[in-house]
Amino acid sequence: DETADSDAARFPINRIYYGPPGTGKTYELSKLLKREYEQAMTSVSKEEWQNQFVGEKAVGLTWWEAAAAALYQLGGKASVDTLLNHPFMKAIAVAKSANKNVRNTVWGALQYHTIESSETVKMSKRMAPAVFDKLPDSSWILAGDWEDAAADLKKLVDEYDAGPPSAEYIKRYSFVTFHQSYGYEEFVEGLRPVLDGDTETGEIHYAIRAGAFKDLCRKARLAPDQQFAMVIDEINRGNISKIFGELITLIEADKREGAVNAISVTLPYSGESFSVPANIDIIGTMNTADRSLALLDTALRRRFEFVPVMPDARDEPGAPLAGLRVSMGEQLV
Q1: Residue 55 DSSP class
Q2: Do 203 and 152 share a structural domain?
Q3: Segments forming the whole domain that contains residue 212
Q4: In what order do the strands lie in the sheet with 14-19?
Q5: Is 26 inside a domain boundary?
Q6: CA-CA distance, 275 to 214, in Å (whole number)?
Q7: 20 to 30 Å CA-CA from 327: which of 177, 262, 299, 317?
Q8: 91-115: per-residue pLDDT in tens?
Q9: What's the CA gap between 195 and 303, in Å, rounded?
Q10: Is 144 left (phi over 0), alpha (psi -120 to 50) or beta?
Q11: CATH number of the domain residue 26 falls in
């Protein structure tokens, strides 16, 4: 019932579509996602699009890249305070929440990547690319061969300034597939090896990175008036207790942010206080040939509604059995 789905999507829902193989679960899910969680660019404001753009493309920049992009967007000159208030820098600061001293980190990135001929920065160690210089008034500018070194960053900023392209759609969902090796670190947060280009040594170290669900929660908070979806294919193939961890309680509708019984927990890696936004739906698919419904984790069964998907015999484009013809004796069915 498409009308019922439309109404339910306005509130946090936890739903699993289940059935035997080839019954159209993916087909039904794709229609739901297109109807409820995609939005034409023509109906999206520039500010809303820019928030999502920053959340998807700028958040993965290193500190020096974010500083260079912000300087370029600000006309090539800015103070550290101005840089710290730039949307790119704010997004990275949120993503790297374990870093409690962002100002010092940004100062370090600027100085490590300062040109050798600088008269105001006297650090003995420098790192490539050298794209910054500091003026006597303590403001920073782009310098050296920054145009070549930051060519991709310029394109990123130009795309950001241009606003939403009219021929595209915003997709407000993330898609993951559970399997036996999938864990909490991929779904919520965990340690990842990274090559840090913003430190003196440039060595590999481990950083806390958000998983698919935590990252979607961050995006959902940037657009509280829109509905988002976490889509989990083959949800019954994963170890639910291992993957969800303490979040299994937070996903209940009355435990979400702003709800009457709202709950937050402290995440084990980052130490952040975390709760689940009310504008995120969790939608899974389950192949009953892999594991029966009765064998599912009890905690999962209590928190999800289960929608059976029986074989879809409709003959229309995209339907699982579209175009299929079976002969029974002399009769074509």
Answers
A1: I
A2: no
A3: 2-37+172-327
A4: 173-177, 228-233, 280-287, 14-19, 305-308
A5: yes
A6: 9
A7: 317
A8: 888 777 666 788 999 999 999 999 9
A9: 40
A10: left
A11: 3.40.50.300
